[in-house]
Description:
Order of helices and strands: HEEEEEEEEEEEEEEEEEEEE
Mean pLDDT: 84
Radius of gyration: 24 Å
Number of helices: 1
Low-confidence stretches: 1-31
Number of strands: 20
Bound molecules: calcium ion
Number of domains: 2
Largest sheet: 5 strands, antiparallel
Distance between the termini: 97 Å
Shape: elongated
Amino acid sequence: MSRRLFFVFLLITLTLTLAACSDDATLPPAGGGTVAEGDLDPVGPGFEIELEFAAGPDSLHRGPFLLKGTRPVWAARWQALVVDFTVTNIGEVDQLEPVSLEFLRLIPDTTELLVEFDVDSKYLFEFENDDLWWTPGEESLPKQLIFTAEAGQSVGFNAQIGLGGLMDSWISGYVWLDANRDGVMQPHELGMEDVPVVVDDGGPDEIFRQVATDHTGWFVFRNLPANTYEVRVLTMSDVYESTTPSSMHVMLTWPMGGGDGFSDADFGFAPAEPR
Ligand SMILES: [Ca+2]
Ligand SMILES: [Ca+2]
């Protein structure tokens, strides 16, 4: 290498080092990687951080993924910063939900999170199209989180996006109008919308959740811990009667390195026959 070339190279290295040290946390840190380093600045515009990878149970998932935060608002009554987080899959690959956010470090370390975790030490994102898949371009619904802070104070954070994992166990199915009353959902038979369905572990953990079917009659319970559950339609108008068993028991286990799902929790109904 000539002396002159070496000098130019040295200069570029020095410039890069200076750029890396600049303390503008509202700009995405160079390089991406797996850990988002950001700053909740009550007078800043918010942040957008691009991450090359998300953490999975056994391996990393290649993105890129975008973590966004609205401008934090300081709430006097909580003495805390309120921030809406969203994540977007800006890669080209379908990813399996759930999508989680975990804070690895908060600065100063006296900062506390005032929103309860969804699973372990993680927050889960929800999606308008909640079909188990996080597809390219799909942005989550905003997840509001609250961080203790003094008035005017910023909070720094290191966080990572998680994908899939052991809590990724689900039960899904259809509630449908069983026109020919044979207990089987034929392709021409229609789903029933907005029917309340519950999942109940009937046990000491007291898991009892309720969802409603979508316009196709489909429903899903996600992120269920390994357990045995009873699934049943909660209420149904008197004008219908069941053409299938009205509840079923489903056992979810956690196989190594992945989730476990049951997709056949189907419940048929037909107009009640006069008695
Ligand atoms: Ca989706
Ligand atoms: Ca049928």
